[in-house]
Amino acid sequence: MLDINELFKEEYSVLEDARLAAADSQLPADACREKLWLVAKHYQRLIRESYRLISRSDRAERELNRMNEQLQKLAAQLEYEATHDPLTAVFNRSAIINLINRALTQANVALILLDIDHFKRINDEYGHPTGDRVICALVSRIRKALPQSAAIGRVGGEEFTILLPEARLEDAMIIASYIHSSLNASTLDALPGRSVTASFGVSLGRKNSDFETLYGAADAALYTAKKRGRNQVALHEDFFCQPENTACKVALAR
Q1: CATH number of the structural domain 93-252
Q2: How far apart are CA 158 and CA 222, in angstroms?
Q3: pLDDT tens, position by position, 75-89
Q4: How many Cα atoms are found within 13 Å in the side-chain-facing hemisphere of 144?
Q5: Distance in angstroms (rounded) separating the CA atoms of residues 197 and 220
Q6: Entry pTM
Q7: How many other C-beta atoms can be found within 10 angstroms of the C-beta atom of residue 161?
Q8: How far is CA 160 from CA 28, 210, 231, in A?
Q9: Buried b (16+ CB within 10 A) or exposed e, 7-27
Q10: Angle, helix 93-104 to helix 211-227, in steps of 10 degrees
């Protein structure tokens, strides 16, 4: 590290000469003026150098701030890409699992699992690009039916989970039934000439349970819906379901 005395060695010398000159009452006026001129010359140089260093420092600070903003944007972009499905922009499998497990530490959680009926036929008949558009249109339809607190996750090619934090079983059944009715009421813009339906499985998880239990119950209910002919909503009979529960009675009657 450079010694401060070495850095300003010349200036210290000039100042010392000026100090000695000021103390010498016999020094001629011309010599005093010469010493004063040297002090002024070096002072002017210091001001110029200080301004140059300050300007360089300001430029460096602005560049650092710009780079920091870029890094923050890049970090946010990388985090988004790591947690979201690139096609639909909903949460990917690992991200929705983390959200569900986190929600289960706070309260009971309702889960809707849906699978597009006969999606392979759509891909085979209309091509995968159309199939992708159908998936995106379905997600858009789902979003319109959900409360702000809900989260959608893509857990498979045409399979999606809907997380409803702190929701009652009745709430989940109403939302699933609304989406189901909406798909049957009107076609998706991506495939206006053909009806696209889905099968739904609904479950409710107790606080401090886990994703595997909750998802397993919803998956079993989804299997029931498919076994009954698809295009319907089913509730897992043994999971948080009581005979006096109206939502359970409606689901089990289907």
Answers
A1: 3.30.70.270
A2: 13
A3: 999 999 999 999 999
A4: 10
A5: 19
A6: 0.72
A7: 27
A8: 96, 18, 15
A9: eeeeeeebbeebeebeeeeee
A10: 110
Q: Token digits for 56?
A: 């360089």
- Site of tokens 């309702």: 110
* CA torsion, ordered 146, 152, 154, 157, to nearest 10 deg: 10
Sheet hosting strand 151-154, strand order edge to edge: 151-154, 159-165, 109-116, 198-205, 233-235
In the chain, count H helices and then E strands.
Answer: 9, 5
Burial (Cβ within 10 Å: 0-12, 13-18, ≥19) of residue 248: buried
Annotated catalytic residue within 49, 158, 212, 244:
158
- Tell me the per-residue pLDDT of 160-205, one tens digit each, with 9 for 90 and over: 999 999 999 999 999 999 999 999 999 999 999 899 999 999 999 9
158 is catalytic: yes
Q: Is residue 125 helix, strand or coil?
A: helix
Backbone φ and ψ for 242, nearest 5 degrees, come out as -115, 150
Minimal CA–CA distance to 99: which of 112, 77, 83? 83
138 burial (CB, 10 Å; 0-12 / 13-18 / 19+) is: buried
